[in-house]
Every structure is written in structure tokens, then in C-alpha cells.
Amino acid sequence: MIENYIVVSKNIFSEGNFFDGYFIVKDGLIQKVYKKSYKKSDDSYKVFDSGENIIIPCMIDCHSFFTGYYVRKFGEDISSCNSTEDLIKKIKGKEIDGVIIAKGLQKNLKLDENIFSKDFPDDMSILLFNWDEEFAFVNKKAKEKFLFDGKDFSSEGMWKILKFVLEQKNICKEIFIDYQKLLLSKGVSFCKDMVFDDSYGLIEILKEIEENNELILKIHFMSQPVGYNFSIENAKKIESILFNSKKLKFDGYNQMVDGSVSVKEADVVDGYEDGDFCKMEIDYEKLENDAILADSNGYRFSLHGQGDGAVSKIIDIFNKCKKNENGKLVNRHAITDLEFANPNSYKKMAELGIFAEIYPQILSIYDDSNEKINLTYERVGDRYKNYWNRRKMIDEGVIVSNATDLPLVIDDLGDSIYSGCYHKFNDGISFVSENAISLEEMLTCWTINGAKNLGIDKKYGKIEDNYFADFLVLNMNPISINENTAKDLKVDKTFISGKLIK
């Protein structure tokens, strides 16, 4: 595609609305938008006409983990190994600095320390993962080296492993380039990515990719303390590395608060139906101290809350942060997930200007919808109506932005519409459909609301004059999208700064 051209569509979407029109792209920017039907003229611009197919700004993912994606791609693939003999043959000679990491371990293989004693030295660390089912074989040496027991797959439980794989610079570069291609093919041009502590070298790797003119994806980073305590120094260190970057920026901090309702790790105000309360011990005082310290230093904070008790307490924490003359938070603090929040919390979120970061594809992760629905009833009874209530968030004026928690799911616009606009599981079963949102609202959450979350809405997130020409051409028109066709919606073309990427 040439650099200067006219883009035409019967269905251009921007900031909540579709319109029939066209826009001029020049030198990577949207020079002028016209909300009227295009008529051929004798000007020198070439014309790209998408007909009735939708054109939207590029998507923005407000909560992703490249590190989580990377560690799952790292190491030898042993999924085809049906015997210990095959396994040993596959991983032999694949060590890096005395460590063997492999993925795809089959559950039926019976492994113990003795199996590897003949073929590997005693000081070899061996970690064999099955990421889909979250189990692993970890030998004694690896347990000592990485403090990982093969059971705790949280970032806190695996931080030494994450640090090790990120130290493998060339492998990380190669996998990131593939990751970048994947996200661009899905229509994502910006993401807010969670790094751990000081990023364990990831920031430096991506900066080098940028300096080599290989970086297209634009990334804002949030530091999540897992191996070390919360530290303002991590922010200063990352900012010093990125001070002259045009595509990488440090934004603030992220911390986990509670867990899922399903496993009784969500902080639920009135407890669970069987009388139990949250199984986790949550240090709200420490979370508050960290958030206020970050806020006082000009950094934003996102707190990952799922239960109604956690969300309410997070709002109380943010209410103590700096506000402007209108009573809105000065820094762009956010609550991520909001699985089971009290609808009354959303009004206060809107008043303070707290962003919501939701997972619109969340229903797609459950293989058995009946199991999930029945478990929800079992846990919270009639309160199930508060589950994933994005409808109430938007009605109360909360700025709702979309996220994936990638690698939990990979960004997929059609899937997000099927799950988020029709509230259906993959098997077609609907759940709390009254909490769903419209197609236009879903596209808004992916575009301008994501831009507002990242503080880039003056130049990204809209099809508007003088905005960057980051936009997508989809393969369908709005009228053809319904609960039966939503999953067929795909990104046909991705343009970044006016250049065709996909």
C-alpha cells in the first residue's frame, strides 16, 4: 500500500458510532475525515475501498503478560514423547547453563529422579512442563535452584524461572518477534504489559529491538513485584532505559489482590453460600501503602480484584490518592478483572475516574459451561446476577477498557463479541445475558477507551483528523454480525501509521 491514499467504507467506526464516509491518509496520519459518501474525483490519491466491511481504529489490550507467553514457548517440545526413552532422547543435549526446560509433558509418563541419573549429571536442573493442565516434573536440583515445587504456577511461585528464561536474550528476541506478528495479525497495536520487578532484562531486550527498527508494537509497562518488594527504584531504572524510546513507556505498577470465586479465593463481603470466606490472606494495608507511594511519585496503579469485597476495598484505597479540582484521580488508576463486584461500586468508580480493565473473552476459557454455572450458583447463590456485569459498569459511566491477561487468551475480536455481547460460552449456553454490552460498546472498549486508559487518546483510538493512521479492516459489516456469526469476524488488514502490516 502506498503512503498517501483515501480509505472508503460504508461502515467506519469511531468513538461509539458507525458512519458512511472516507478519510485521507498522508504521511502516516489521518489528514482529514469526511462523514459523507465518497465520490470519485480527479485528485492524485489512490483509493482503498472496503465496501461495507467495517473499519475501526487498532485495538488496545490493557492487560497482557508477554513474559507468561514467552515462558510457555520456551524450551524443547516434548508433546510427542510417549515413553521415558523418547523423552530422554529429546531433551539430551538441550541444556542451557545447566538447566533443561521443556514443554508438552504427557501426564501418563511416570517420572522420578532415578530415570535421569544415567544420562544427566547430578547438578543438572530439569523442569518439564504441561502448561495447559498446569503440572510439571521438577527434579531436586531444579527445586533448589528455582524454589519451585511444580505446583505453584503463579508469578510469585515461578519468578526465578521467569528471570532465568528472560536472561536468554536471543531466544527472547526470536519469540517476541513472533508474538508481535501474532498481536498485529489480531489487530492489536498497543498493549499495557505486566513485567516483573525490574523486568529481569526484558525492557533492555525490547529497547534493542526498537533500536534495530524491528519494533512495531507499542507497549506501556507496569511493574508487578513478585520476587522482591515494591520499589520506586524499579520505576526509575526502567524509565532511565526508556527515556528516549518512541514506542516503549513505563506507566506504573500492578498488584494482585484476591483470586477467583470458583476456588474461594475471592474476597466476598457476605461470604460464600456454605459459610466460608476468602481463603487468601490479603494485606490491604500494604497494598494501600504501595498504591499511595506510587501515586505520590506520579505513577499509576492497577489492582487485580475479583470479589465484591476486594473491589470495594480497592476503591477505598484509590479514594485516598491525589485528585484534581473535579474530584477525579490525577493518575490513571485501574481495577482489573472485576469478576464479581457489587453493582453499587461502579458509581463510585465513575466518580473517581477509576478505569475498569475487563476480560471480554473470559467465557471462552471454560470447557464445560454447566460446570461453571453450577459452581457459581453453589458459591454465591442468587448473587450470581452480579457476575461479569459490564452493562452496569458502562451505564454508571465507568470507562471500560478491554484486556486479555494474555496468555490466558489471545486477543480475538470476534470471540470477544460472542462472549461479551451475547454472554455465551463456547457451547452456546448463555449466562447472565442481561449483563452483556452492545457491539458498539465492545468496539469502544477495544479502541478509544483503551487509549484513554493508556493516556494516548489525543493521538490514538479514533478515526479522526490528525490522529495516527492505525486502523483495521474487518471481514464483515455490522448488520451481518450476530450470535451465530460473531466468531467468524476477523481482522482482514492491519495498518500502522498508514502502512499495511498484514
From TrEMBL:
Gene3D superfamilies: 3.10.310.70, Metal-dependent hydrolases, Urease, subunit C, domain 1. Residues 192-500 form the Amidohydrolase domain. InterPro entries: Amidohydro_3 (IPR013108), Metal-dep_hydrolase_composite (IPR011059), Metal_Hydrolase (IPR032466). GO terms for molecular function: hydrolase activity, acting on carbon-nitrogen (but not peptide) bonds. Its EC number is 3.5.1.91. Keywords: Hydrolase. This is N-substituted formamide deformylase. It comes from Anaerococcus vaginalis. The lineage of its organism: Bacteria, Bacillati, Bacillota, Tissierellia, Tissierellales. The gene is nfdA.
